[in-house]
Amino acid sequence: MFTIQFDAAGIYKVGTRTQQFHVSFEEMMSFTGGIIGLLEYGLAWKVMKVSIGRTRHRLWHHPGSSIDTQPAIWIDNSGPVLYELRHGLEYLRICPEELETSRFGKAIKLYWDGGMTGLKTSWVVRMVIEAFFVGLWRNLLRRLKKRSF
């Protein structure tokens, strides 16, 4: 499953269980797929807090500036069997089926398949809401597991 595997001090291991690269929180917050991945991982409060702060900053200090930036994780090359995901100089080779096992991976793949023009707003809203509730559910299960031990 392509997702955030582990986090420590704001650095996240992103990828599959066998292949991963390190991505910072700020880099994850810089693109739609990253926000969906963070919500799916269970960091809803932190994502909302940073998003509100960024929106407030843009409204007062940089009105009219574009929110879209180059994604921190992107597909550089795709073939019939494998996609090559890049983050700086690091890369992972991953099959499309494995990439589509999470909302995070789907967002990255759809961005590439759509010609890197952006995702449909309705799809993004649906994925953000789903990821939010999946993250809440995972947090609840983690807390229940900790209490049972």
UniProtKB/TrEMBL annotation:
Residue ranges crossing the lipid bilayer per the database entry: 123-141
Keyword annotations of the record: Membrane, Transmembrane, Transmembrane helix
UniProt superkingdom: Eukaryota
Protein name, entry field: Uncharacterized protein
Native organism: Penicillium cosmopolitanum
